[in-house]
Specification:
This protein is mainly α and about 220 residues long. About 80% of the residues lie in helices and about 0% in strands.
Length: about 220
């Protein structure tokens, strides 16, 4: 499904509103020019009755212009909201792209340190998340316990690991920039530019890098 479907629909609606407003503006603009010309003629001819009528119509036209300005303000406000949502989506997409490889490296380390159970624990998480389950199968709990003990040695919880796997799953549905990035740069970006909307993932990502610092220094 197109993940920009909602924004595209909103933009099309705003485009239609703007087009209708522009047509309305052109009509009122032409009326205003005509009324001003009639007003000048009425004043020149000292025709007070026509002058009063033209003045009343000019007043109505001015009210219409005010209404159009309010509609334009509304369109602009809605457009800014759409832009904000698109920026948030782009930031989230970039974050998913930036950190998915590090989660893969982390998974590889777990599998190497626990070759018999690392893959099983990861698969159990996938099954739980994708299957919408509340708990793990009894047959997976021994593997999960061993991974949990490994994670505790680097100050991580199994819940942190679940969040990282969830983030990896989300990244599978997004564009991956494929840029080779240093660990130092990834850690720096995590502190400085990580999206507020995705702050749930920030702490487990920090723990991921701390763990890799420990494991990769051995």
């Amino acid at each position: 499904m197109d993940n920009l479907k909602v924004e595209k629909k909103e933009v099309n609606t705003l485009r239609t509103r703007n087009a209708n407003l522009h047509k309305h503006f052109q009509v009122r603009r032409d009326e205003n020019r005509s009324l001003r010309k009639d007003m000048e003629e009425s004043i020149f001819e000292e025709n007070l009755i026509d002058c009063a009528g033209n003045l009343a119509r000019l007043n109505d036209n001015t009210e219409n212009f005010i209404d159009m300005m309010e509609e334009m303000h509304s369109i602009t406000k809605d457009l800014v909201n759409v832009v904000d949502k698109l920026i948030n989506k782009l930031e989230n997409k970039n974050a998913l792209s930036e950190y998915r490889d590090w989660i893969s490296y982390f998974n590889k380390e777990i599998k190497e340190k626990l070759p018999q159970v690392g893959s099983r624990a990861q698969t159990a998480i996938y099954k739980k998340v994708l299957g919408g389950k509340q708990d793990y199968a009894d047959s997976d709990k021994e593997a999960i316990l061993k991974v949990e003990n490994l994670l505790k040695s680097v100050n991580m919880s199994f819940y942190d690991y679940e969040l990282l796997i969830l983030m990896k799953l989300r990244s599978n549905h997004e564009f991956h920039r494929g840029e080779l990035q240093s660990r130092a740069q990834a850690k720096k970006n995590l502190q400085e530019t990580f999206p507020e909307e995705m702050k749930l993932f920030k702490e487990p990502l920090q723990k991921l890098f701390n763990a890799l610092d420990i494991w990769w220094s051995i």
